């Protein structure tokens, strides 16, 4: 025996150290004998990799760094070192150097009862024993709880700010955002308690409450609606009752292998991100045991982002198995804690269209192709390639697919939403998630009629001495945010009457809504492939000729109009749909004229004006 060294894999407890003996001759994996004088650190890594516990922690013998230390085993008791700590205490052992440069049986003899070498995996992070997970988590909570300070909103400060802002129009405290000086205009539509329904007349709240206490079959919900429909407002409103985790990628065989790797890596990253948010929730429970869902939601918007970022940095060094074990533990703890209070745990994936359209776009494969048995996968995949040997567009997927697949398995209700989220995106959610989940689509959002517009404004603000002219009230019908925009435009002044100030706010709100609609219509008309001009012209004529009663050749056209522009409701005849949003029609008509879509059509249209 030339040297005897004690080794420890980074992330494991000192009791898991093991001894390695180096003799005068070493036989490498190529069956070549190497004398101690020629025995390198690279040879030593090869020797280490023959140990089963090392194989579980690293990918291969080249996927580890070794650090020489001299730490008493007694001082290591119950301590788990981090990479930052050992870098200050150690010397990295270079693979090309001989082992004798660091240890020998003479002047560099390893000191007894000491740890001599830290093994640091470089490709696969350290795989921890399950018994240590709770210790690691508690250590992270203790460190972070000392640095994180909750930002709480005092309702008295909200009232004070809103009284100063609204002046004589102040009636009661209106929905506020994550901070005192921000009113949540998106929430005003919720004041009339109009909730969107799925086909069986259940609301999102019903679905979440059905999931309380569930262990296997969780709901996955896709909310598809244009900007202003009230998607985010629903999430904010739910956060008053339930805990919302708010979250704002060759050859045929190579194509398949690449798809598997990308989805696996994407899924692992999603698991890490979700774990950090659950840990953040548990951290807040530690700081404030009586934490409310609304406080948790606000805290994610305020100081929570930095703490979550720090958690990601701390946990990303751990092996994926360790992350999953931690996730399982935290999920069990939180679901029991929350369910005992009859509250739900919800994942709200907002702006989901970004993942669908911009992250790993067209890089992944539809799960429907890969659902075939292994023997048929290559054959089926080959049939989906075009003449350029690329995957046909209808089978192309993005990061959105593994994102939804992973989150649907997180023991929580998953709600996917986004301004540009389409019905085809919603269908991709359905194909991505586990078949044991209950997939639902919410596409029918409530709209306001003239009486609703009146009720909402009078409920929210003091409109004594004020009257809204019928023609202006008519323009505010439709999506709730048309009316709520009025409140954001109020500007108290002693220089004008209350009625004048109110009408000024109404006019400003109408102008803002028109500008927003104008941008939407321009974007729709810019896509020539959709033949949007013909469809929009059809809408205008139906409004002029049949009081908004309209029918479509294809259901996809109705879905397009309903989600891109205005809210369609069923007519009493169950055949036609009713389109009753004059401001939308006004903007569409103006834009069709501006691009001179069809001179004959425009002449015909002018006869109705």
UniProtKB/TrEMBL annotation:
| Domain of life of the source | Eukaryota
Q: What is this protein called?
A: 16400_t:CDS:1
């Amino acid at each position: 025996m030339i040297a005897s060294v004690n080794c420890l894999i980074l992330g494991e407890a000192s009791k898991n150290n093991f001894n390695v003996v180096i003799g005068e001759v070493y036989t490498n994996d190529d069956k070549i004998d190497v004398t101690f004088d020629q025995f390198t650190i690279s040879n030593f890594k090869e020797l280490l990799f023959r140990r089963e516990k090392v194989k579980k922690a690293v990918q291969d013998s080249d996927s580890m760094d070794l650090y020489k230390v001299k730490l008493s085993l007694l001082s290591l008791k119950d301590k788990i070192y981090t990479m930052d700590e050992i870098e200050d205490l150690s010397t990295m052992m270079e693979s090309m150097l001989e082992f004798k440069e660091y240890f020998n049986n003479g002047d560099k003899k390893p000191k007894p009862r000491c740890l001599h070498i830290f093994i640091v995996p470089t490709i696969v992070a350290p795989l921890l024993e399950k018994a240590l997970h709770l210790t690691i988590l508690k250590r992270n909570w203790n460190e972070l709880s000392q640095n994180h300070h909750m930002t709480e909103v005092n309702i008295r400060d909200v009232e004070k700010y809103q009284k100063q802002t609204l002046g004589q129009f102040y009636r009661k405290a209106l929905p506020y955002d994550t901070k005192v000086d921000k009113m949540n205009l998106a929430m005003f539509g919720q004041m009339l308690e109009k909730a969107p329904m799925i086909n069986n007349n259940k609301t999102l709240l019903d679905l979440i409450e059905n999931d309380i206490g569930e262990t296997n079959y969780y709901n996955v919900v896709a909310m598809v609606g244009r900007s202003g429909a009230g998607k985010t407002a629903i999430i904010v409103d739910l956060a008053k009752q339930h805990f919302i985790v708010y979250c704002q990628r060759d050859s045929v065989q190579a194509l398949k292998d690449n798809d598997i790797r990308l989805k696996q890596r994407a899924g692992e990253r999603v698991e890490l991100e979700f774990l950090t948010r659950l840990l953040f929730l548990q951290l807040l429970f530690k700081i404030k045991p009586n934490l409310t869902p609304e406080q948790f939601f606000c805290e994610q918007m305020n100081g929570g982002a930095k703490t979550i970022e720090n958690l990601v940095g701390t946990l990303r060094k751990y092996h994926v198995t360790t992350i999953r074990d931690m996730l399982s533990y935290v999920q069990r703890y939180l679901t029991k804690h929350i369910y005992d209070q009859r509250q739900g745990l919800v994942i709200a994936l907002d702006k989901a269209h970004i993942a669908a359209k911009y992250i790993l776009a067209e890089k992944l494969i539809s799960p429907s192709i890969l659902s075939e048995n292994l023997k048929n996968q290559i054959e089926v995949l080959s049939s989906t390639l075009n003449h350029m040997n690329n995957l046909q567009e209808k089978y192309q997927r993005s990061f959105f697919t593994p994102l939804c697949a992973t989150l649907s398995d997180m023991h929580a209700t998953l709600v996917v939403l986004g301004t540009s989220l389409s019905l085809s995106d919603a269908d991709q959610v359905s194909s991505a998630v586990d078949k044991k989940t209950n997939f639902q689509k919410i596409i029918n959002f409530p709209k306001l009629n003239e009486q609703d517009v009146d009720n909402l404004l009078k409920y929210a603000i003091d409109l004594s001495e004020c009257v809204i002219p019928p023609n202006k009230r008519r323009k505010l019908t439709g999506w709730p945010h048309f009316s709520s925009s009025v409140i954001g435009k109020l500007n108290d002044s002693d220089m004008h009457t209350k009625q004048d100030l109110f009408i000024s706010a109404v006019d400003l709100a109408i102008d803002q809504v028109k500008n927003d609609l104008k941008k939407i219509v321009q974007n729709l008309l810019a896509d020539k492939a959709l033949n949007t001009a013909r469809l929009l012209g059809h809408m205008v004529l139906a409004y002029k000729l049949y009081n908004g009663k309209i029918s479509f050749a294809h259901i996809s056209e109705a879905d397009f109009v309903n989600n891109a522009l205005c809210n369609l409701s069923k007519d009493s005849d169950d055949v036609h749909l009713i389109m009753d949003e004059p401001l939308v029609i006004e903007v569409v008509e103006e834009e069709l004229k501006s691009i001179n879509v069809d001179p004959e059509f425009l002449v015909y249209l002018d006869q109705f004006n």
